[in-house]
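Cross-posted from the bioinformatics board.
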Amino acid sequence: MSTAEIDQLARLLAKLPGLGARSSRRAVLALLKRRETLGEPLVRALREAFDKVRACGVCGNLDSIDPCGICASQRRDRQTILVCEEVEDLWAMERAQSYGGLYHVLGGKLSAIDAVGPEDLGIDRLMARIQADDVKEVILALGATVDGQTTAHYIAERLAGLAVNVSRLGHGVPVGGELNYLDEGTLQAALRARQKLTL
Amino acid sequence: MIEWRDEGIVLSSRRHGENDAILALMTFEHGRHMGLVRGGGGRRLGPLLQAGNRLEAVWKARIVDHLGHFALEPVRLYAAGLLDDPLRLAAAAGACAMVDEALPERDPHPRLFAALLTLLERLTGDAAWPEAYVRFELLLLAELGFGLELDVCAVTGESEGLAFVSPRTGKAVTMAAAGTYADRLLRLPSFLVLPVPADRQGIADGLRLAGFFLDRHIVGPVDKPLPLARDRFVSLWQARLDATDDAREDGA
């Protein structure tokens, strides 16, 4: 037996990615059992995040300051912008610790089925930013999907008249990947992007 | 349990929940058919569910009216070969989006399946594909009962000198019969009526011709625009054509 409050909390938690009906009820139980050490700190953290975290007005990243920490940093390469679909892609790039430039989060990709057109993405904002900030390179880090690459080609066309280098991430064999486990599409892309070995 | 096995071409897929996807396939025997793909939102099946890919599909459902679910195996993953070429990618996406928009569900069109397959083969090979694209769209119109009559002139009955199509009837008209009405008619590209290769302007005319009737008969009556993916292909083609014209004028 459970109360309406527990049901409501479980229903809301079940809407989160990775949680279903059963796991959300387990989460509710854990929160209520560990009220002081987990439940109340979680409520405070949620309140604080909702009050403070906003989308960066420059790049679309999520941060408690606007412009975000990345856009405000003077230690980053300010002449390179990496364009990605979602904030989670930005986080993935930051985890890799191999890119030191700025970002631009589109918030989606062109999609025929979902009727997402260029005006629905922040492409005009990106263009204005490139022209205003003397950007030298734009890296299109969009998914290797039909919609992702359609978006990449569209942005590349829009940038064609500007004095900016446009590149995209490579497609191919993942680190640790074995060829016999790869799908044929990835193998095709890897073969096309083969490189000369330097000794 | 109802079950069938067929070959299909991916038209579109849409995430369903966290891990699954709802797939629209253009199949050989069962027409445009939807189904749930368990794990379709994941890394293993994601590459398969790209528009234009050719798959072997097994569809199962408890009763025929259910959405059912697909089990899929790759036959030929065309999409991967198109990702680097904006025009070919736009053509493949445009053709798939057009079929997805135009065809009713579960209505077999084996000729259209074959034409889409031919188009994808040409797009990923060296053969001339723009002509195949225009013919594919005209076949789509014909399969839905709105085929154009391009063999003889609607006015004179002649089969030579055909140069226009009437936007009202969808029938061909000769240059002579068009007379002062020529500017109100749609241009008929010569490759559609004569054994001649298609030029760039002819392809643009063919796209305009097919687009006009697809809009009038297929999407217009249900108050929808032509798919964005098709618009993108047509505007890319026109941009390339304009760039060629500009270069020619600069050279002259």
